Amino acid sequence: MQYPNLERGCRKLNEESMNLISNLGFPIAVAVYLLIRFEKKIGMLETAINKLTIILSSKEKK
Questions:
Q1: Which residue windows are transmembrane per the record (predicted)?
Q2: Over the range 3-15, which residues count as b (16 or more CB within 10 Å of their CB) and which as e?
Q3: φ and ψ at 3, to 5 degrees?
Q4: C-alpha distances in Å from residue 55, one per residue of 18, 43, 61
Q5: pLDDT tens digit sequence for 7-61
Q6: 7, containing H or E segment
Q7: CA-to-CA distance for 57 and 62, rounded, in angstroms?
Q8: What is the signed CA dihedral for 32, 34, 39, 41, rounded to 10 degrees?
Q9: Whose CA is closest to 13, among 25, 1, 21?
Q10: How high is the pLDDT of residue 20?
Q11: N or C: less crowded end of the chain, CB within 10 Å?
Q12: Count of CB atoms situated within 10 Å of the CB of 61
């Protein structure tokens, strides 16, 4: 027993899912790349803010 409608439906679903992946894959890859790059910069900013906080608190004590 064959199910031609089911086969067409699966084929269409597969095409739609491949289309969705190809349309969303690039933006997702760019977002991940930017998040990784910004994570390092945010860490550096956090370190600088902590150092400035220590410097300012030591100047206030004087």
A1: 20-36
A2: eeeeeeeeeeeee
A3: -125, 85
A4: 55, 19, 10
A5: 666 676 677 777 777 788 888 888 888 988 899 899 999 999 999 999 999 988 7
A6: helix 4-61
A7: 9
A8: 170
A9: 21
A10: 75
A11: N
A12: 5
Give the CA diameter of the chain: 90
Q: Which residue has the tokens 């491949």?
A: 18
Distance CA 13, CA 6 (A): 10
Q: In this structure, what token pair is assigned to residue 2?
A: 């064959």
Tokens (6 digits) for 57: 């608190």
> What span, in angstroms and rounded, lies between the C-alpha atoms of 35 and 29?
10
Return the structure tokens found at 30.
């760019």
Structure tokens at 55: 């410097």
